Protein 1
Amino acid sequence: MSEIKKIIKGCLAGDRRDQELLYRRHASKLYAVCLQYSGNDEEARDILQEGFIKIFENLENYKHEGSFEGWMRKITVNTALEKFRSRHNLYRVDDIDTIIEPDAEPDNQDYAGLEANDLLDIIRELPTKYRMVFNLYAIEGYSHKEISKMVNISEGTSKSNLSRARVILQRRVGSYTGIKKKAANE
Amino acid sequence: MSEKGANIDLLFRNGLKDYEVLPPAGVWDGIQSAVKVKSRPIILLRVAAVITVLLTLSFFTYRLSMENSGTPESVVAYNIQAFDPIISVPLDKLKPLEIKENNRFNNTTAFAPVNNTTDVAIDFDINDSPAQPLSIMETRSLSISNTLRAKNSLLTSFNILETKSPEINYPDFQYLPENNTPKLVNRWSITAMASPTYYSAINAGSDALSSQILSSEQPLFSYSGGLAFSYKISKRFSIQSGLYYSSLGQKVDGINSYSGFQQYGTTKSGHNFEVLTSSGTVVTSNPDIFLSADGAERIVTAYTKDVFDPNKASLQPVNTSLDQNLSYLEFPVILRYKLVDKTIGINLIGGLSYNLLVHNSVSTTLDGNVYPVGDTKGLNPLSLSSSLGMGMEYNISSKLSLNLEPTFRYYLNPFSVTSGTYIHPYSFGIFSGVSYKF
């Protein structure tokens, strides 16, 4: 039996040590996901806590098919979405199927020198509705149809939000890269 | 735009892949207090399973004992009403009536009454051969059980009508009925019993503190044993009391102990550390012991991690848990009801016990060596527990029997009341022993 299977078995039997072991092993990765979906640290902490409670409560439903880490990540993302739905009202722009092109092009396409924490900072600066759609589409790989159901918006709104998110991100990335280059030259 | 979009997507997807951020402290505490609720029903299910097994065992034992003893019941009563004479026996021809019944009542004898207004009941013990009347009691009537009515050989002796009970009129009943009721013999018994005991506790509240405390405690080997006297009140009921000694223990996990702390001084209060447990607050009395815990709330001390580091001070690690031991003298008052009174008897047992605290210590071990740590403060010197069990009794002889009594015990008041906690201990033991009746 693999180690993760033993830990899961222990968790299912209510073994506190195995539960803590599971948490210690995966909390850091899942907390990064929580930060990615939340606007502040407090919200990220809540998502992590609620997400792990759901993981433990639903552990018996995990069939050992596919990645366990992926299964936990999915629960964490869903928890973030639930929180998002309960706290935010997305601007529902119905029947917009045309993608609104950005009115300004990004000024820099050289992304060299950006660290993961820089990317996290940039993504967290996005408005909530854009951040959600961008994360679900670009990072998690959901389609606009799926996102529209998950976030309760139309497909058009999802496309629109993604487009706007990309523009903002490209600008911010350009700014970050410029600042970093300037700092490096000095 | 779409190519630029794809590039920016890739940048973030790859850049954030496998990225990790250490979560803030305290998140785990919130999680474990919430998920603990889920593990409780497992214990309840185990208790339910044990009860089910006991009931099943009892049922099969009952069936077995019934098969071994045979039917019908060993004592029967005859109902003979005296009015229209069907069988008239002249006074000078009064003699015992012979009753024959298919090898079961060999030489069974019924006595013919003389007085036609007197009703009698005659008890026979079927197992005794030849059967003899054990007693004759005054009563309104004598009845023959339905089972016996079917026995033709018996009924013909009384010339019974189909629709009525057998009726006999005896003009002159000279045989005076004895007015003695059957006496219970061997009313007293003494029992020596002992049992290994599983000891744990139930969190009656839903607070996070109680859950956290309980989750870190594991039962140690516990036992109970003693002598009990019981007095038979009636054929079914008996009352029992005596003196038992119980040793209970639990392991408190997550408490790291180190030795060699004495040289670093002690606090003015006389003890260096306090540890919160479900049984009370453990207070150290050994100045050489240093304690630390992962969850800082469990230990109250001036020597917190930021003040004193046991590793830097090169203290010797002893263990990661504490052993908490308590001993009680128990004075039970137990009522027993005999469900089945056969060679293998079954008793229902219930009652209360007063428990007097006689020993209280906390220690930790390293390679078999026991390091005393201190004791538990705030314990109730007297606690009350309720017992419920089902006992099996195998009668080796009329005086001696072997007993097996699975018993569940629930402590009505906690061993101690720690502020904010609602923890009730319980124990389960399978008592076995010997009884001598006198």
Protein 2
Amino acid sequence: MKWWKVLGILLILYSLIAGMLVPLGAGIIRVEPRRAAAGTPLVLEVTGYNSTYRNGDTKAWLKYDDQHALSPRRVTVQNDRDLRLDFVIPKQHPGRDSVNALNLILFNPRDGYSVLPSAVFTVGATFGGDISPWLNSVEVTDASTRFHFPYRNILGETIRNTYYHVPLWMAMMVIFAISMWYSVGFLRRRDPADDQRAEAFASTGLLFGILGIVTGMVWAKNTWGAYWSFDVKQNMAAIALLIYAAYFMLRSALPDRDTAARFSSVYNIFAFILLIPLLYIIPRMTASLHPGSGGNPAFASDDLDSTMRMVFYPAVAGWILMGCWISQLRARTKRLYE
Amino acid sequence: MKKFNFLIQKYSVTSFLILLCLQASQASTASGPDFMQSIGKIYVVVAVIVIIFLGLVLYLYRLDRRISRIEKRKRYEK
């Protein structure tokens, strides 16, 4: 067994184990009640996720905007997961809207901070007057004492899919690139072995792409509400895979192996070139549910927490190596049947 | 084709188990669902996933060996 095959296996095993076992950070999963009348006291019951409220001084704020936040009169820690916050919502609000959405922010020295956007809606607010109750600064730091993956609202534990769904796509890109490379090599040297490798890598790439789309659909069902939302990224990914499926249909439609190799090599090159606009350019031009849209690249520094990178990059490398191994086996099998 | 079905199955099981964990953790009592309470269950899930993955790796490894043997024979016969 070549070393790189073993390395691929180990990297994927690592991503499976570390990706699933590292706990998430603290989050907020329940706030009751969600509405309050301005000018009345408000008793909020808050339930956290993976929180340790008993540890140290737990602080809370209801934030209106960057300059205005309410501090609670009292914070009662019931246990590590449950808090009771006694607020008084002033009648006067900093803005002109009579209905306002306030974000709940919690801070604990061990957990770091957690946010629930639009946790409480206040109704019947008036503008102007004494807004001194709103002049509190939200003092939070990002630091928490334990190693954890980020807790994101809506995603929750499904954030771990980042280690399985995304590396498949990245590996697919590399595998298709290698396939195109062999196609180019075939057109130059006319060695049938090159064409066999091109086909083998294309089939593995298609496999990873299908798995990527299916895992994406399962994830989407949980977070977006439907398996298929006709989201631009989903549509473009489906089109890309159909183009590659057509590559195989082209091969089988042509009469002899040499013609099939020549035509499909040219098709393969165009198919790969099309992946760039389909998967990377068009989705970024429009608003999309999928991360990496509306002008933002999907893996800017904000999108991937540094703790997640520790598992994510090895997973990508592992899947690329696995893809190469599977493709190599297919290519060798094809050679044996010549 | 069989390998393809295996891989599909493996991923549906993985995703299903992840969703199951998420569902199970949300259907919990007032003291809050969380990872720490279900940490015993997550080890089982990880063990299952690792076993499935290693099973597939073993399949690939044996396939690799078989192909190598046939290739060696072909080269010898040449």
